[in-house]
Amino acid sequence: MKDSEEAELCFPQHLNASCSKTMHPPSVSLLIYIALSFISFLTVTLNLLVIISISHFKRLHSPTNILLLSLAVSDCLVGFLISFQIVLTDGCWYLGDIMCAIYFILDYIITTASIGTMVLISVDRYVAICYPLHYSSKVTTERAKMCVSLCWMIAFLCHSLLLKDSLQKPGRYNSCFGECVVVLDYVGGIVDLLLSFIGPVSAILILYVRVFVVVVSQARAMQSHVAAVSLQGSVKITVKKSEMKAAVTLGVVVVVFLMCTCPYFCVILMAEDAAVSASSVTFLLFYFNSTLNPLIYALFYPWFRKSVKLILTLQILKSDSSDAFVM
Q1: 3-state helix, strand, coil in the chain (%, to 5)
Q2: Is 311 helix (H, G, I), strand (E, B) or coil?
Q3: What is the pLDDT of residues 238-269, one digit of tens each?
Q4: Alpha-carbon distance 154 to 45, whole Å?
Q5: Could you tell me the residue ranges of all domains in the chain?
Q6: What does DSSP assign to residue 22?
Q7: In the CATH scheme, what is the homologous superfamily, with its name and number, of domain 25-323?
Q8: What is the pTM of this model?
Q9: CB 119 within 8 A of CB 204
Q10: Which residues does the UniProt record annotate as the domain G-protein coupled receptors family 1 profile (predicted)?
Q11: Burial tier of 168 (Cβ tally within 10 Å: 0-12, 13-18, 19+)
């Protein structure tokens, strides 16, 4: 009986202080392990394809793709973070309190940078659709790189400050050995909520509504000129189709983003304090958004399918492959 009780503890040597394991049937534990491993592998692989494509092919070095590259980097790192959840299959954290604190800080920084990049992409599409004549002068590759750098710097500085207590005194909020928990104070929780959810969602929704209004007005104008056969009319129709596609893509992003992140932030809002456990199911759903991002952003573009084909067939190993026409 004693052996059975000890087997249910994360650290049997700490009988009265150890957390209890989450006991699953072997088949369930195996299913969880396989599912998490697959999601982690898929997230890393898809985002690596985006990273290699944009980095390697010179024709893809545009402001919009610089933003996509930042998103892919953050989401690829999230794929590696998912592997930590595999350790928590039985509900126990075996990597120590310091690694727990580092894990959470990295998690907050990376996911916030990912969300921030989504806002930048929305701004990019807003300017391209609503102010097309000024787009090339206002949105440049250098400015895109600067905005991406600021996004990562802000995410790093803010969450390093918000979680500095957990790093200075790791494990201070754990109720037992084998637990991985961090706590944000009231002000820190509000700041994180504004920075990681309310602010980005508000910005994306406002920009999308504006884009939608412009696209609808232009679609009506296009219908009134549908019988025109001049070259100018053909160009207008082509532009409007691309704008509509951008609006639809952005709409999908908004819906998926809300579906993946709202449960996590609802749990935070309903909790008495801002305590977050590394084993939370809402964390996994939050992570899964990073798996979907490359599918939503990259697979909507023909250049991605062409570049993936060149990557998988090892054509990128050729000396002149970086100049390949993939647009």
Answers
A1: 75, 5, 20
A2: helix
A3: 445 665 665 576 667 777 877 887 777 777 66
A4: 27
A5: 25-323
A6: -
A7: Rhodopsin 7-helix transmembrane proteins (1.20.1070.10)
A8: 0.82
A9: yes
A10: 46-297
A11: exposed
